[in-house]
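sry for the spam today, last one i promise. struct tokens for design, 194 residues
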């Protein structure tokens, strides 16, 4: 099989060589004097050099200038990306605010502070307990409605909990900005599989 391919390849080369030697251009080249052949060779080399200069070297030189101007911009982008990568590593290694599966005394005190008056945990106004389903039950005896909303928003963000149920009892009926008693149940916002 390989020898058949070699034979066909040799036959094709012979046909090309025969056609070149029998062509009019080849005969003309052979009839030129050595000076004429030298002039044509030098002209061909100069033409090739001019084409290489025009189509290879000039575009490369232009690209080199523009690329050299982009180097400082790319270096600044790289430095910014490295600092952002360091920030991402720092954030990923920072512990969570609250471990979502453990309900600790610190969580209870934190919620008491969030819903207590003047952000103190020792208030008699607010009690926080953990029920049988490991949910926080927050009872506030008296708080302004707007203050309660602000404290609820802060607690939802800080402790990553969600509201399960709310029971609001106005202490002064007919006054929406007045004091209210609040019974609130908060649950873990994260999936329980963590």
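last one done:
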């Amino acid at each position: 099989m390989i020898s058949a391919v070699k034979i066909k390849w040799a036959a094709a080369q012979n046909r090309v060589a025969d056609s070149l030697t029998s062509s009019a251009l080849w005969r003309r080249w052979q009839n030129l004097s050595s000076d004429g052949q030298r002039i044509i060779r030098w002209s061909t080399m100069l033409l090739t050099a001019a084409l290489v200069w025009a189509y290879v070297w000039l575009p490369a030189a232009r690209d080199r200038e523009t690329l050299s101007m982009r180097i400082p911009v790319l270096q600044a982008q790289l430095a910014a990306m490295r600092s952002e990568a360091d920030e991402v590593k720092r954030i990923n290694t920072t512990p969570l605010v609250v471990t979502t599966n453990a309900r600790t005394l610190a969580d209870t005190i934190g919620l008491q502070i969030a819903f207590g008056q003047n952000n103190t945990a020792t208030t008699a106004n607010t009690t926080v307990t953990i029920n049988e389903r490991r949910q926080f039950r927050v009872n506030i005896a008296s708080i302004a409605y707007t203050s309660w909303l602000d404290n609820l928003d802060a607690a939802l963000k800080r402790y990553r909990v969600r509201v399960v149920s709310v029971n609001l009892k106005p202490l002064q009926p007919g006054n929406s900005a007045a004091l209210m008693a609040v019974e609130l149940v908060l649950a873990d916002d994260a999936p329980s599989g963590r």
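DSSP finds five helices and four strands in the chain. ok im logging off now
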